[in-house]
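Tutorial handout. Part one gives the primary structure; part two gives the three-dimensional structure as tokens.
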Amino acid sequence: MSFGFKPVHIPPDGGISVFLVGDTYTVLLNAAETGGNLSMVEAIVPAKAGPPMHTHHQEAESFIVMDGELVINAENEEYEVSAGGVVYVPKGTSHKFRNRSDTKPAKMILLFTPGGMDGRTRARRRLWRARGRSRS
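Part two.
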């Protein structure tokens, strides 16, 4: 029983990419495709880069590191995470992450629950583009 939703397949080169604060975020699954249950985003973080401290008030965020090493700060904790590691950050928790490498990008999958962050990312891209700040 599918409750009106169909399986979704995203090929390796699929998804919609946006560029924010130097990182590349590719939306793999959006809230509309998952009935609002989750959004899935691939993040490519350049060497020594990452976003500033921020808080998601409407969704939790799970980080699954696929390649490279990151430092993830959540509240007063710091986690050094390598490929295969996972960090869960509850909604309302201030957090940031940074690629530890001096030369190589890091890759991770972000799961937002419930879904919806994908829509805010596209809206943010439109706003930055209107202000002349986006590369996409």
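Part three, for discussion. The longest strand covers residues 60-67. Confidence is low (pLDDT under 50) at residues 127-136.
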